[in-house]
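Student:
Attend to each token:
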Amino acid sequence: MARYKTINGITTECTAAEVAELDAMKAAWDSKAFDRAIAGLRFKRNQLLVETDWMANSDVTMSDDWKTYRQALRDLPSGLDTVAKVNEKEFPTKPGA
């Protein structure tokens, strides 16, 4: 299937070299899909952990429910090896929520 490009309002067919470059760029993007997905999950997980970090201070007694919640957040990325698994993973529910 032919690919086209538009430059200054003029549409022309891509050369074989341009098609090869586009295919290489797409392959590179696709190969990093898991890395992007797991980074997004970890970013959200880290935000949730930061919200409860104050509970880990030495002058605060953390309940077992909160300890379990925070451990579940830390364990969240384990066992995830595909984009589909990352996308299906559910975050634990905050205690009292």
Notes: Helices lie at 16-31, 33-52, 64-75, 83-88. The first helix runs from residue 16 to 31.
